[in-house]
Amino acid sequence: MLAHLAYVSNRKSTCTESEIESILKSCKKNNPPLNITGVLLYSDTKFIQYVEGESNELLALYDKIKKDPRHDKAVMVSYGPIAAKIFPSWHMANRKLAGAEVDFKTDITASDKEVFHNIMNGQQEQGGRVQELLQKVFKN
Ligand SMILES: Cc1cc2nc3c(=O)[nH]c(=O)nc-3n(C[C@H](O)[C@H](O)[C@H](O)COP(=O)(O)O)c2cc1C
After folding, report:
1. Does ligand 1 have an atom closer than 6 angstroms to the CB of 73?
2. Most exposed residue of 49, 58, 69, 114, measured as fewest CB within 10 angstroms of its CB?
3. How many of the other CB atoms lie within 10 Å of CB of 101?
4. What is the pLDDT of residues 10-49, one digit of tens each?
5. Distances from the Cα of 78 to the Cα of 22, 58, 59, 98, 130, angstroms
6. Which CATH number do you get for residue 43?
7. How many domains does the chain have?
């Protein structure tokens, strides 16, 4: 089953920018053979990752990522089937967030902001709403 999975976690203070580079290297090496695509948002204190692919592969990857010492307190905020991938060619696009806000795009609506805050707070969100927000954040 084609699915998506999104989680939020706390980036540890010991996780430097060069550690982020090494995470992205792992993504680029390991995700393509598994047909996993997605995006990683990070700030000084948080990670938000959205991945899409076969559900069993996603759950296995999430199990591995959860144990990574560069972050902790991972909370899955959205998981479920999707009709099609929204980032079919991105093995892990990434953006650094300035803070706990996502208003660097002019077309971000109040409802997108609510979705963002829910994710940041580890609250469940609907897959469609998460996808809509991330498509705006990562367009261009
Ligand atoms: C926030 C975060 C996101 C990660 N995302 C991925 C990922 O999408 N794919 C992946 O293979 N490893 C990811 N990792 C790294 C894994 O936890 C693990 O270190 C890595 O897969 C080890 O594989 P390697 O030794 O082949 O590099 C992530 C780690 C963190 C902290």
Report:
1. no
2. 69
3. 13
4. 999 999 999 999 999 999 999 999 999 999 999 999 999 9
5. 25, 12, 12, 23, 8
6. 3.30.70.100
7. 1
Question: What confidence category does residue 51 fall into, taking pLDDT thresholds of 50, 70 and 90?
Answer: very high
Say whether pLDDT at 100 is over 90.
no
Give the residue numbers spanning the domain of 126: 2-137
In ligand 1, the atom with minimum distance to the C-alpha of 15 is 31
Q: How far is CA 138 from CA 61, 113, 114, in A?
A: 22, 15, 18
User: Does residue 47 line the site of ligand 1, with CB under 6 A?
Assistant: yes
Atom of ligand 1 nearest to the CA of 38: 8
Sign of CA dihedral 67, 68, 69, 75: negative
